[in-house]
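User: Can you predict the 3D structure for this chain?
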Amino acid sequence: MCLLVYVRSLQCGFVNLDDAYYIEGNPLIKSLDGKALLKIFTEPHLAAWIPLTYVSFAIDYFFWGNNPVGYHLTNIMLHATNTMLVVLLADRLFKNGRGLKVDGKDVSAQGGYLYLAMLLLTGLLWGLHPMRVESVAWSSERKDVLNGLFTLASVFYYLRYVQKRALQSARGAAWCDYSISIFMFSLSLLSKQVSVVLPLMLLIIDWFPLVRIVKGRVVAILIEKLPYFVLSLMVTYITISLASNGNVMVAADTFPLYARFFVSGNAVFEYCRYLLYPVGIVPFFPIGDTISYSFMVKTAIVAAFTVYCVYVSRKLPFIGAIWLSFVLMLLPVLAFTQSAEDTLFASRYTYLASISPSIAAGTLLPIAYLTAEKMKQRAARILLPIVIVALIFGYAVLTLRLIKSWENSGTLWTRQIKILPLGRAYIYRGRYLYSIGDYRSALDDFTSAIISAQQFGRDDIFNIYVYHGETLQALGLHEEAVTDFTTAIKLSPYPEYYYLRGCALKSLGRIADAEDDFRRAGTHTGPIPWFPVKYK
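Assistant: Here is the predicted structure, written as structure tokens:
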């Protein structure tokens, strides 16, 4: 079903959100020789170290070049495989642990269609949820699905290890699975560092449902996790170092701890809301200039619910395990480690975190069905599968609609503008419209972007004036283009801007002024990138 739904993304192209940096214009993936591989594994790119993701891109490039179909196909196959792994993990968690009991009956031990339906529902709720679209339909988010593959495989082999270690005759095979689990974990870290919290996740699984953390075994279990922690700490150090050197970490004085706390609380609340009601999902949700009162209220709700889950964990450990697993997997992408100054939250960040809520939601099926059976509510037993099918169908429809929005940069940013208009969305759509020759529409978008930048006092507004001027130049409005380029030069006199103004002046017949600008530009003749800071 995941393949059938996501096959629509094969019609999607690359978008002007990171795809040019990760794929189309990434020199690291253009070959798979020893020199290229050495660079991939030893040098950061875009202040990130994700060598295995780049290797996967390089393999795609070898077969497909810059044809986006191959990259989307790989993402689809990886996500479908991950959905299968979620089903297998749910099965092992129930069978290796305490199982799922309803009125004293162990549903997992009985097997049958009800148990199978529960497992399939878990996989479908996770795999077809609209919040997965960003990770699958966006080519650059290969790191999500690739990291997901190895993270899920690591947990799967860990559960095999636990099961075999309990059997005296299978101790040797158990250590083989343990080694594979560690190896898979290392591969997940080489794909994307979001899985650094996996050692803690395994401890939660040991607590419930495996019930391995008992008196006298705590030290042994911690030692068992030592290799995972060592790998996690090493990669965390590398990640922080690269982020610091690349100036992508947001400073504490710019984004203080109390603000990070409220932004994180708000993000967790919103993730829960979108899991339940996945409507209005877009790539960008900005934080804003101030922490609003609603952030504080949502954070208080999240904190209160967390305290409640911890409080009831003695009697109802599955509640604590599900909630802690959810929050723990979100921890690396919350504002405490913020690397994007204005990103509130993003649906792609829930790729791993939403697995535990999906498993929890899947368990509601046998609970509701057996309860209705006990109460002899025949109508409820008939209605239940209808509701579930309707839910899955609704998710599939929403997912298909979201996939369509990733068809190209125009459709992507049009959806963003329709739901949550942002200045950057007008910029990205304007650049796309300019690239396809729709200069009049591009000019309208750049005008809207300038108005937004003026309203919010953006320091990098000079870039937008240049884009606006380029578009005017393409429309033959050279005098107006000179005005825009002059404004940009006054704000930030990059040499490239002199070249653009020189071209406009030359078109007006002002040869002497044009030559003077060409002299100032020197060899800086374009293309014109986005400059993040003012020229000094």
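The beta strands are 101-102, 105-106. Residues 436 and 442 are 10 Å apart (CA to CA).
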